[in-house]
Design a protein that fits this description.
Length: about 300
């Protein structure tokens, strides 16, 4: 096997509570992740030289690209060093918007780790891959975990929960939201009450999600008017369909916002209402609009 074509799906945070802060400055979180059928595509092709080459869509410098960093991290593993495997060309076709709180870069990194572990025949365990992934970013272990997960710690402590397919309308503002700026804000609430998995078990069985909240949302709305505007648009569209306001919220650190809907038909109507908003003079402030369904398992996940 010399090449692989893999999909790297996006995620949403159904809620995100900040419950404290560690001595090293990292925030302690509780969240619930679900995968989406909105994906980047990763092409991995080996070549005889040991170097890492990057092709396709690229955001920022090559050295900062998470897929490239994932490949270098695997090359540092004892298993690769012992056998001096081939190098690889990584070509990424981007579909997931950057800076949107949808985990596109982290998903690319996780899928690269997963794919190269197979392509190079390293046979690293899921735990070993997750340890490498955490050094790349807090969301990377979730994409290696491969199913709906309750997350704690900085996002690396993952537990599965029984979910169900949901229809989700996602709207992404034109301006990306830098995660660091949100977490550094003195206005950020950092003392949400910790909860247990059982606390949201009933909510997880409903197609419309109305449990919890996103502690980062008020700060993001205040700092980024586009996020506030699009959340208002989406709330109006949801209200027209009788969807509870709690079903409209921001994912992760933003700026993607989403609304869960009870069925496909309702979701499509919400989607079309957002299309109408998009045609207004302020419509340029909405960069991406997507109707998605959540996934029960990662498309590349293998037990």
């Amino acid at each position: 096997m010399t090449s692989l074509r893999l999909v790297a799906p996006a995620k949403i945070n159904l809620f995100l509570h900040v419950i404290g802060r560690r001595a090293d400055g990292y925030h302690l979180l509780q969240s619930a992740f679900e995968l989406l059928d909105w994906s980047d595509t990763i092409h991995l092709t080996t070549h005889p030289e040991p170097d890492i080459r990057r092709e396709g869509d690229l955001i920022g410098g090559v050295d900062q690209d998470l897929a490239v960093r994932a490949a270098h991290a695997l090359q540092s593993a004892t298993e690769w060093q012992a056998s001096r495997r081939s190098g690889v060309t990584i070509r990424v076709e981007k579909a997931i918007p950057a800076g949107a709180g949808l985990g596109g870069g982290s998903s690319d990194a996780a899928t690269t780790l997963y794919g190269l572990n197979r392509l190079w025949g390293l046979d690293l365990s899921a735990t070993q891959l997750a340890e490498i992934g955490l050094r790349l970013g807090a969301d990377v272990p979730f994409f290696l975990f491969g199913e709906s997960a309750f997350a704690q710690g900085v996002g690396e402590d993952l537990s599965p929960f029984k979910s169900m397919p949901r229809w989700v309308v996602i709207a992404v503002p034109a301006s990306p939201v830098p995660t660091a700026r949100i977490f550094q804000s003195p206005e950020l609430t950092r003392n949400s009450k910790p909860l247990k998995i059982a606390d949201f078990a009933q909510a997880a069985s409903h197609p419309v999600w109305d449990f919890g909240h996103n502690d980062l949302e008020p700060v993001t709305r205040a700092l980024f008017p586009d996020v506030d505007l699009i959340l208002n648009w989406l709330s109006q569209a949801a209200d027209c369909e009788g969807i509870a306001p709690e079903a409209v919220r921001m994912s992760g650190s933003g700026g993607a916002v989403f609304c869960t809907a009870p069925d496909h038909q309702t979701a499509r109507r919400v989607f079309h209402r957002l299309e109408e908003f998009q045609s207004t003079p302020q419509g340029h402030r909405l960069a991406h609009l997507k109707l998605c369904q959540t996934l029960m398992t990662h498309p590349e996940h293998r037990s």
